Amino acid sequence: MWIFLFLSFLEIVSGADWCYQSQVSCNYSCTGPVEWGRIFPQCGGRSQSPVNIVSRKVLPDQRLTPLHLVGYQHAFHGNLSNNGHTVQLDLPGGMQIKGGNLLQTYKALQLHFHWGKDGGPGSEHTIDGEQFPMEMHIVHIKEQYTSLSQAVRDPAGVAVLGFFLQESNSANKKFDPFIKALTRIRHPSNKTRVQGISLQMFLPAQSDMSQYFRYHGSLTTPDCAQAVVWTLFESAVALSRQQLAAFSQLVFSREGRPMVNTFRPGQPLNGRRVSRSGSASLRPAHVIVTSTLLVLRHFA
Ligand SMILES: [Zn+2]
Questions:
Q1: Considering only CA atoms, which of 258, 260, 240 is closest in space to residue 115?
Q2: Is 85 one of the catalytic residues?
Q3: What is the value of pTM for the model shown?
């Protein structure tokens, strides 16, 4: 009886906090990605994120016109925090996205990052199996909602823009104020204010809003709500190795160790369609054939 109660207690304790695989250890019990579905049923759903994008299987879709970013160039002061799982910048009102076959305007709520260890592989989505060093998510919700928890009740309530970060020989100066601010949020629940930044500063130098992948999936952290219209851009943000490495070297997780490998492993597509913006004529012939078969199967 006592053993049973003790085991139940352990289960409650371990289930109380989710974590990434890198944080699962003997002396710090938390629920790693493989077990998320046990505590958060939606994490075991059939439309989960992230996914691996197989470029020869994506379907060109003419409706995926360039995305319009509204207010992304405006400077603002934002609250940056270490929430124990990532670093998150909360965004003030006035930044929106529209177009690109989104059903309506979505407003930006926050942005955060996923990374590896010392600049090694760390993105959540992968392209043809390739994992990038980092991935940035700018989370938006439909205009009429006031919070993420309200938006996730709508199957298309959330729109996330995903940008890959890749290594470059030179530093990206625009990221310096942000990386400097990480030294002020080393530990969970630390908060700081970042002055005079804009969303534009976080985007690729040659921002091309016309080339992207689109699919329907979920939040990549518990409770993994399947309410996300994903837009993953092909052009990546360039940071130096040192800048990429700063994230895992400056920020610590709850168990007091460097926060590393903050990504969920890839999830099965389960027949979901991944589309690509741009002209179908740009795609090789075999992709179009594959696409046709997939479309037929989709409507079967
Ligand atoms: Zn994310």
A1: 260
A2: yes
A3: 0.88
pLDDT at position 206: 79
Cα of 137 vs centre of ligand 1, distance in Å, is: 5
Task: Look at residue 296 and tell me whether its pLDDT is greater than 90.
Answer: no
Q: What CATH number should be reported for the domain holding residue 171?
A: 3.10.200.10
Which residue among the candidates 77, 85, 112, 125 is catalytic per the annotation? 85
Distance, CA 23 to ligand 1 centroid (Å)? 17
What are 113's strand-pairing partners?
136
The count of structural domains within the chain is 1
Res. 46: pLDDT tops 80: yes
All residues at 6 or more sequence positions from 144 whose CB lies less than 8 Å from its CB, including other chains: none
What amino acid is encoded at 202 in this protein?
F
- Ligand 1 centroid from CA 124, angstroms: 8
pLDDT at 28: 66
Residue 224 predicted with pLDDT over 80: yes
Residue at 18 is within a domain: no
